[in-house]
Amino acid sequence: MGMVTVLLPASLVVLFPEAERRVEVEATDVASALDALHERWPGMRDRLIDARPAIRQHIKLYVNDEPAELGTALAAGDQLLVVPAISGG
Amino acid sequence: MSKRVLVMAATKKGVFTLESDETRREWKQRGPFCEAWPMMHAAYDASNRAIIASGGNAWYGPAVWRSTDLGETWTHSSEGLTYGEGKEPVVNVWSLRAAGDTIYAGVEPAGLFRSRDGGDTWEHLPALNNHPAAANWVPGGGGLCLHTIAVDPADNQRVFVAISTGGLYASEDGGESWEPRNGGLPIMFPEEGPTEGEPPQCVHHFELAAGNSSTIYQQHHFGMFASHDTGRSWENVGAALPSTFGFAAAAHPREQGTWYLAPLNGDSIGRYMPEGRAAIWKTTDGGKSWRDTRAGLPQDGAFFGVLRQGMAADTLDPAGVYFGTNGGNIFASRDEGETWEPIAEYLPSISSIETAVIED
Q1: Which of B60, B85, B87 lies at the smallest CB-CB distance from A47?
Q2: Measured between CB atoms, does A52 come within 8 Å of chain B?
Q3: What ipTM does this complex have?
Q4: CA nearest A84 in B: which residue?
Q5: What is the set of domains in chain A, with CATH numbers?
Q6: b/e code B196-233 from CB counts within 10 Å (16+ = b)
Q7: d(Cα A20, Cα B113) in Å, to the nearest integer?
Q8: Which residue range forms the structural domain that includes residue B234?
Q9: Which residue of A has its CA nearest to B82?
Q10: If you count Cβ atoms within 10 Å of the first and of the last residue's Cβ in chain B, which end, N or C, has fewer?
Q11: Residues B130-154: tens digit of each pLDDT
């Protein structure tokens, strides 16, 4: 299991006191990275994926700038980017 | 001991509160809370002295929010708000009801959840979804949602819920089993409806009458109805009203026969105040007669609506009545609905209004 960097959007971080935009977690894939976030800030995983489980419709995840799914593998030094869609009114 | 009156408004862009003393003459507005999420409902949990609020964010999903310091700080949770892995996810929390040590949450897609730890965690009450009538539920204009919850103040095991489009259901055992309570209500699309079983009913909102656990008032898609047998049979009490259509209703806190409605002009021609002249209609005899109250309300160009959770009464004497519009105004009456004044303007579209009288 390697250490990866997760970059979180401000609109998510503001929901969790003490959370930071850039965080290091140990993970082998995207799902375990979200588990690690959830362990550190309870509830954060539920904001990013639903109960099916599936990545929420208006959230996109990228590993090293490539589109990622929950099963996408992570290796030490990888970067997981969490991006909310820009929409609304 | 002093009393404070709290009005809670859930809006498309967060929760707002208005606070006053017992005179209800000056109001202090605060918000938006809940990070300006689109919110469906905000109410007061007296047991935990907390404001509880619910909604669903298009990015981050559904959540129930809670503040134990009247809005200064908030937490949120959706732990347990799920039908299970592989099932359709919960996308919104439409309605909350605190009763003793229990909080109920009505969600979209329609179902009922329960929390016994103040809203930190939730459990699904599956009996409602497992009722055979659930096979006939269909989404209304706002989706397939459980939008109204009431608990009999004399028996907290007696729970009522309303689903659009599904109907009104009652449980006598705290949600472990359910019975449809829609006798005598009009069928929405009889030519398309099921040939057997419970037809789906488009109940817009209901209120339990004060001091009588058998009487329920309902604003239905096709009229205003009253039941005196806990919903087993209903009678149309809206013949004297200007419209059969509307959403919001509020019951007087002490007078069984007094309740308030906000009739709109119709389901397909705007859904606004008839003729653009705002009025709340009041009955004091259980719907036998109605009269419009307009003093202080705009009588020209008032093309707003009031959504299904958008009206409430407080428990002071005389009772205060409040409603919020989808144009972002809150109107208040401190004389039981006789005269009105705006207490908030230019808010986002208002989904719900609730009140609490807090003793310090």
Answers
A1: B60
A2: yes
A3: 0.91
A4: B59
A5: 2-84 (3.10.20.30)
A6: eebbbbbbbbbbbbbeeeebbbbbbbbbbbbbeebbee
A7: 32
A8: 3-359
A9: A51
A10: N
A11: 999 999 999 988 899 999 999 999 9
